[in-house]
Write a structure and sequence with these properties.
The chain is mainly alpha-helical. The strands form three sheets. A three-stranded antiparallel beta sheet has the order 1-3-2, with no helix packed on it. A two-stranded antiparallel sheet has the order 4-5. Helix 10 packs parallel to helix 15, helix 12 runs antiparallel to helix 19 and helix 19 runs antiparallel to helix 20.
């Protein structure tokens, strides 16, 4: 079976390729303004230090993010002394991480999905992706849920029966593993960058801005692959980072049990709520092929390093904090956090389900008990072909244009609130997610405006709010 194909569809308007090229510039930017360039260089320079700072603050200052700065200001410590106290690279950590990544590659490449054959409602196996700007439709082997199940089954089997390694192994090697994840993140980003110049998977979907920093960070190739099935974007977005997310939290839980003799309700809440999010990701991995990460973002440092380092280290800050500060919440506080997380998840999942249902049935469905309304629109791909699409204006998609992000932010706030209010560090996640999703709203809408033109204006007139009805 071919891993990619083009759907033949001739242009309905008969305009030449020049007009097609002009109208088909959706996807990431061709040209870079000064603000974007400054932001890119800033992230390349400071993002690795942000990760190190938060992890170091927990390791050396019990998760206080102000104390290191105060001690530096007062001359009690220096940057070199802080650096010297941080655990360094170890071959033990390198062996652990190498085994982990190789195991995930093996599961991804060598074990085709069979879980969709016996799990009702789950969509796995070979699936079509969205159409790329060049008109290409890639095929993907969706087996993330199966990989997650196998990985966690082995984890629990080891913890209870085999005892090959301690369940606290991740926490115990957390900072040495940080150096290993950085090595992989920079290695895969650099490889993808060079590959785009030397042997791109699909040259028509490459974008060169002429600025080396922007190209390196935001990526050149749309869907870099090795062979037919190893897709860089799908693998690094889902594995090894997101599969590891729940294992990291379990390791934190095991460490809390080891240190204090019990597990707090706050740690259980973080594990449960974030576990729901991770399982939702893999249950809906086929749907994920139609999201902005796969449909619009090119593969560069932003995704390569971000998925290897930023995601596993900063998305799990709540669990790390609770190892150092075992917060036991009151019943009312715990219930409020649980309800906030579940309601946020319901909005997030229901909103995405409505869009997926509408897309699969091409509008022949019912949303909130009514026939859905939508905006009919058209767009051109770079091969000059005209395609038609529908923009949903019913259900949650009639409330706000990105109401799924609103639910996501509610869930993110719940993770943070589970840690109580003693420190700022656990709340970095909600601050970051707010910036990320608002920026994603702006990016997505800019691309949609370029893609759909006047049809997008009709859509924004029908659904005027982005995230919060009446406010934004």
């Amino acid at each position: 079976m071919e891993s990619a194909r083009r759907r033949p569809q001739h242009s309905a308007n008969g305009k030449g390729s020049e007009a097609a090229q002009k109208s088909a510039q959706w996807g990431r930017a061709w040209e870079v303004d000064w603000f974007s360039l400054i932001a890119v260089v800033g992230l390349l320079c400071f993002a690795p230090f942000i990760v190190f700072y938060f992890v170091m603050a927990c390791n050396q200052y019990e998760c206080s993010i102000s104390q290191p700065l105060l001690e530096l200001y007062r001359g009690k410590v220096t940057l070199l002394s802080i650096w010297a106290r941080a655990p360094s690279f170890t071959w033990t950590a390198a062996k652990i991480y190498s085994i982990w990544v190789c195991f995930q590659v093996f599961l991804y490449m060598c074990i085709p999905d069979v879980s969709h054959k016996f799990i009702p409602g789950y969509v796995g196996g070979v699936q079509d992706g969205a159409r790329t700007p060049a008109g290409l439709i890639n095929k993907y082997e969706i087996n993330g849920l199966q990989c997650w199940i196998i990985t966690h089954a082995l984890w629990f089997a080891n913890a209870h029966y085999f005892h090959w390694f301690s369940p606290t192994i991740i926490f115990d090697n957390w900072i040495p593993l940080l150096w290993c994840t950085n090595i992989l993140g920079y290695a895969v980003s650099t490889f993808a960058f060079l590959k785009a110049y030397l042997f791109p998977t699909n040259a028509e979907d490459c974008k060169f801005t002429g600025n080396i920093f922007y190209n390196y960070m935001m990526g050149i190739e749309f869907n870099p692959r090795i062979g037919k099935w190893f897709d860089f974007k799908l693998f690094f977005n889902g594995r090894p980072g997101i599969v590891a997310w729940t294992l990291i939290n379990l390791s934190y839980m095991a460490k809390q049990q080891e240190l204090y003799g019990h597990v707090t309700n706050s740690m259980i809440l973080v594990n449960v709520l974030q576990g729901i999010y991770v399982l939702d990701f893999f249950w809906n991995e086929a749907w994920y092929l139609k999201t902005i990460d796969i449909c619009h973002d090119h593969f560069g440092w932003y995704l390569g390093w971000g998925d290897c380092v930023w995601l596993p280290y900063l998305y799990t800050l709540q669990g790390l904090y609770l190892v150092y500060h075992p917060v036991q919440l009151s019943d009312a506080h715990a219930l409020a956090v649980l309800l906030l997380g579940l309601v946020g998840y319901y909005i997030f999942r229901s909103t995405n389900h409505q869009k997926d249902l509408f897309r699969r049935t091409e509008g022949a469905c019912s949303i909130w008990g009514r026939k859905p309304t939508y905006i009919e629109c058209s767009y051109l791909s770079a091969d000059g072909r005209t395609h038609r699409s529908k923009l949903l204006t019913s259900g949650f998609w009639g409330v706000a244009r990105h109401f799924n992000y609103t639910g996501d932010l509610m869930g993110s706030l719940a993770y943070c609130a589970a840690c109580g209010f003693g420190h700022i560090l656990p709340y970095f996640y909600i601050v970051y997610m707010t910036i990320l999703l608002v920026h994603r709203c702006v990016r997505d809408e800019h691309r949609c405006s370029s893609k759909y033109g006047k049809d997008w204006k009709r859509y924004t007139d029908a659904v005027p709010y982005r995230l919060i009805p009446g406010l934004f």
